[in-house]
Amino acid sequence: MTLALDPAAQDLLFREARSANTFTDEPVTDEQVQAIYDLVKYGPTAFNQSPLRVVLVRSAEGRERLVKHMAEGNQPKTATAPLVAILAADNEFHEELPALLPHFPQAKDAFFSERPVREQAAALNASLQAGYFIVGVRAAGLAAGPMTGYDAAGIEKEFLDGDHKVLMVVNIGKPGEDAWLPRLPRLSYDEVVTTV
């Protein structure tokens, strides 16, 4: 069976895509980021809660503040990427539910009045959206370098408030010289899928 998506698009989004380790100095524009968001915002989340929040780090001052919280091996990549996005989960996402779920505005209080419930829902659904975001970066013809090697508490104190939890930091841009490591193995269909 073939997929509906063109093979070239399949390659761009999945088969040929890698986590980039180097980038050119070509800027990533606000228009590109807007186009990425305008595409990926349609990815599904439970109750349409859409808890992902994005902090774009462009300035030299912002970059310096971020790099000091990155693991040593991630610091050069983050220092030189044209754009860096901090992807975070908003634990107060429920405040937007009356607008995002207009047919069931009471979901805000019926399901998400307790902070631990919101934190769990925000982490799961913002992580889904982070995956959509990475695919969206690829759809824009850019490379993404997602990373989780950082001091989360430091990034949260520096860039977020107590209602947001960092999920990952993503370097974004056109791939530079020697950007890719060799493709690592993947599990086969039979290793992953069980039919009962």
Protein structure class: alpha+beta
Count of extended strands: 4
Give, in spatial order, the strands making up the sheet with the most strands.
1-2-4-3
* SSE order, one letter for each helix or strand: HHEHHEHHHEHEH
Write up what this structure looks like:
With 196 residues, this protein is of the alpha+beta class. 41% of the residues lie in helices and 15% in strands. The protein has nine helices and four strands, in the order ααβααβαααβαβα. The protein has helices spanning 7-15, 30-40, 60-67, 75-80, 97-100, 107-112, 115-139, 152-159, 189-192, and strands at residues 52-57, 83-90, 143-147, 164-173. Strands 1-2-4-3 form a four-stranded antiparallel β-sheet. The mean pLDDT is 96.
SSE blueprint:
Blueprint: H1 7-15, H2 30-40, E1 52-57, H3 60-67, H4 75-80, E2 83-90, H5 97-100, H6 107-112, H7 115-139, E3 143-147, H8 152-159, E4 164-173, H9 189-192
Antiparallel strand pairs: 1-2, 2-4, 3-4
